[in-house]
Write a structure and sequence with these properties.
By secondary structure, this protein is mostly beta strands. The chain is built from 1 helix and 14 strands.
């Protein structure tokens, strides 16, 4: 199906304006490329994040901070993990008081407010592991009568040379009708590059990127 499908303008200094289908500015786990992730799969907590949506965003950043805000509709594909047709306003801010080539200390906050279409039902679900199985460890089934959805995401990451500690917590609240409910999820993960290459950090995107192998056999 469709993945990233967008146009982006970079004519202003430290600014990106994007229109199309993109990863919404929410969650370290989602914003990192699958090439840069520590593991083969994202955490089960990703069932609560918006993932890819069709919309428009404005992104800017400084030496130690980033800020992104956007307005989004639905995904072009059938959603695999979250069904919630409607319109979202999503914002993410990050602060990295420590950021150099060898050390990073990162904090982030993201917030989504989604107004649900009147005839839509909401479902949160995700497949386990690398999604080769049809079983779902998380599934709420279809929840009718939801008026709106609010999700808050908290991020923490620390990098020291070849070591990385990363953690997130997300809380989704549904309101309306008989479907008032809260769903929380998160993870903590630690990784080390045994051959010594350092983890890198995107100052514009505010997430970790993969090490660059020093030897011909890789890291």
């Amino acid at each position: 199906g469709w993945r990233g499908l967008y146009v982006q303008y970079r004519g202003f200094k430290r600014t990106r304006i994007t229109v199309g289908q993109m990863v919404a500015p929410f969650s370290l786990d989602d914003l990192m490329s699958s090439n840069d992730m520590t593991f083969m799969e994202r955490s089960l907590g990703s069932a609560l994040s918006p993932g890819m949506l069709l919309g428009a965003s404005y992104q800017t950043w400084g030496k130690h901070w980033t800020a992104t805000v956007g307005v989004y509709g639905n995904e072009l594909n059938d959603q695999d993990r979250r069904d919630a047709d409607g319109t979202s306003v999503i914002g993410r801010v990050t602060w990295a008081p420590v950021r150099d080539k060898r050390n990073v200390l990162h904090f982030g906050l993201a917030q989504e407010f989604r107004s649900i279409d009147g005839d839509s039902e909401v479902r949160l679900r995700t497949r386990p592991e690398s999604r080769i199985a049809n079983n779902r460890l998380v599934s709420t089934s279809l929840l009718p009568g939801v008026d709106d959805l609010r999700t808050t995401g908290l991020e923490f990451m620390a990098i020291h040379r070849n070591l990385r500690l990363q953690s997130e917590y997300m809380l989704t609240s549904l309101s309306g009708g008989t479907s008032d409910a809260d769903f929380g999820g998160g993870y903590v993960q630690f990784s080390a590059v045994l051959t010594g290459e350092r983890y890198r950090y995107s100052k514009s995107g505010a997430y970790a990127t993969a090490p660059r192998p020093r030897g011909k056999f890789g890291a």
